[in-house]
Amino acid sequence: MTETTALDSAHAAMTAAPDDDGARLRFYERLADSELFLMLTKEAEDGNISPEMFELADGTFVLLFDREERLAQFADRVVPYAALSGRVVAQMLAGQGIGLGLNLEVAPSSILIPAEAVSWLHQTLEHRPDQVEAAISEILPPAGLPEVLLTALDSKLATATGLAVSAYLVSVRYAGGGQGHLLGFVDATEAAQSALAKAAGEALTFSGIEAGAMDVGFFASTDAMTAKLDKVGLRFDLPQPEEPKLYQPEIPGSNPDKPPLLK
Which residue intervals make up region (Disordered) (predicted)? Predict the structure, then answer.
């Protein structure tokens, strides 16, 4: 049975509703998050890759597939390739006038993505919400945010293993006036803060929500603010890396429940 991938499903939803901006955004989000296999002219050398370029009537394209089997089916021969995320490919090709040929001729998600859309995707992925600096005067439960944003946040944060312990979504009012929503991360490492802010920004953008609808903040679990977030906020628990398991050999005869075997 032929596998239906996440990109196949997102492409089908976009095709079925050509006027639905949300469906189109979710397709591009899946494209950015997916591992893709880029056809090369030769094996990578010292981290440098040489993508196979195809000149078509609509412009110049590189070829990408979301499964190795699909790449092999298209090429019908052994070819070198590089496994990259869609966001890395967009960053690599942005502004170069090169488009993406995705799953051409081998999947229901076969599509040509023009160079302009590649540059747009790269710029979109660079957006991130502002980090909160203003004094917060009041914290309230989140209200009025669409379910699509909550689902997108849940999906994004589910992949942020070990970057923070948890996050809380709340409504806030600021001391200087104004109100909005805040996504507060708890015990995030300093090195991870930029990545977390970017993930939050992508969830906003690909949900079709204005970037100004949410700020981000970073707090320690011992901060008084964290206790306030915990009282009224919608909590997201981020996955944590598994602790390495140490093998402790059992000395024969040391466990009274397991007497030694007699031969």
Answer: 240-263
Judge contact between 193 and 201, C-beta under 8 A. no
Amino acid, res. 147: E
| Start-to-end Cα distance in the chain | 52
Give the number of domains in the chain: 2
Angle CA(15)–CA(38)–CA(27) in degrees, nearest 5? 25
More confident residue, 46 or 81: 81
Query: Which 8-state DSSP code applies to residue 165?
Result: S
pTM of the predicted protein model = 0.66
Report, in angstroms and rounded to the nearest whole number, the Rg of the chain calculated over CA atoms. Answer: 24
Task: Please say whether the dihedral angle defined by the alpha carbons of residues 134, 137, 143 and 144, taken in this order, is positive or negative.
Answer: negative
Could you tell me the residue range of the domain that residue 166 belongs to? 136-237
Measured CA to CA, the distance from residue 237 to residue 231 in angstroms comes to 15
- CA dist list (Å): 31 to 48, 85, 89, 227: 23, 8, 10, 37
Shared-domain flag, residues 95 and 150: no
Structure tokens at 97: 């006038």
